[in-house]
Amino acid sequence: MASSHLETWEVWYPAAAANGLLVARARIDPTGVLWVHSAPPIMAVTVRNEKDEATARGEPLERQGPQLPMTRLERQGDLVVRTDRWPNETDVGALVLLPGGEVGVLLAWWNAADGSEWRWQVEFYNHR
After folding, report:
1. What is the secondary structure of 93-114 as a DSSP string?
2. In terms of DSSP bridges, do strands 95-97 and 70-76 run parallel, antiparallel, or are they unpaired?
3. 40/32 Cα distance (integer angstroms)
4. What is the DSSP letter of 67?
């Protein structure tokens, strides 16, 4: 059941175009961790409460290490921090934000040790 207190996560690519490019914006139940699929090399993230007040930010959040398909954003007080890594078993059940703003739940993840291939399952659910 959805909470009546939603928060908005906004992910921007500040190095694109003249004023940056919105990667995704999603309204979700409050969370401390949000995964991003296909994150840009540098991001600006803002988390807003139901009154549209900024409650956490991360900027600039630059990629550390090789380009991977998944990026983990973690809220630490009023900061958002970025970790580029492969999901593992402990991350199953976490929310995943796709470019454009759709959010799903990570059901399964597997990747080859050398990073040459991966398989994942995400569930999407909505109601009116």
Report:
1. T-EEEPTTS-EEEEEEEEE-TT
2. unpaired
3. 21
4. -
Q: What does the alpha-carbon distance between residue 110 and residue 117 come to, in Å, rounded to a whole number?
A: 9
Of residues 78, 119, 118, 123, the one with CA closest to residue 98: 123
d(CA 64, CA 93): 24
pLDDT in tens, 51-87: 999 999 999 999 998 899 999 999 999 999 999 999 9
Please spell the DSSP secondary structure of 11-55, one letter per residue: EEETTSTTT-EEEEEEEES--SEEEEET--SEEEEEEE-TTS-EE
Using one digit for the tens of pLDDT, what is the confidence trace for 17-55?
A: 888 899 999 999 999 999 999 999 999 999 999 999 999
Identify the residue whose tokens are 């050398």.
114
In angstroms, the CA 61 to CA 46 distance is 11
* Cβ atoms of residues 104 and 122 within 8 Å: yes
